[in-house]
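Because discrete structure vocabularies remain unfamiliar, we first show an illustrative case, written as a sequence plus integers encoding its fold.
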Amino acid sequence: MPRKPSKAARAALDAVTGKRARIVVEHILKHGSITTEDLREKYGYDHPPRAIKDVSDQGVPIVKTIVRKKDGKRMAEYRFGDLNAVAPGRAGGRIAFPKAFKRALVERYGARCSLCDAPFEPRALQIDHRVPYLVAGDGCAASRETGEYMLVCGSCNRAKSWSCEHCPNGVAAKDGSVCQACYWAEPLRYTHVATLDVRRLDLTWTGNEVRDYDAARARAGQGECSMPTFVKEAVRRAVRSGGNSRPRGGS
């Protein structure tokens, strides 16, 4: 039988919400671990890692190992990590945002994605923690200061989530100050992208700008270069000439 968690650890586990997350927690408490086979066959979850992430998203450390089934095939097995290291500000899941808070963000930043700068209807924009939830939970932004959040479109939010989930800081160190210096938190002033010495620019052309894009794409095609290469060359020419030359594709 698994060792009983401390009172503090049990309180943190009791605060975990959501059907899938509760099933994972209760199963591990009872059996000591849960496998992908358990999640599929006993509980009908076709994507077991999603159920595990429901738990880890709420600050509960989960350790994954690879074991073999009776037929010799490999499968993942999950156990609790150090329950004394439950991340603060995350038990119970994400805190819902009131509509007034989103209106305050729109008033401060405009109805635009903070990453690609494309305009959107406010309802199409998502509220996102500048310091990722997987690093700090709701703890660092519990005061609901608008500066701790940004508005992003669904596409950019998915790109940020993938990058943060694969970032060394997001996976291990979880240092909020590192996140604060990242593109995904401060796209106008940053020193790295997910700890890498990289610079990134997401652009969207809308309305009358579409004609400019189509003209640029045509010129890029004449020079047999991609649009990213064409845009980089245009920036390079503008910087080197003090911004007075007009970019030309393909050379």
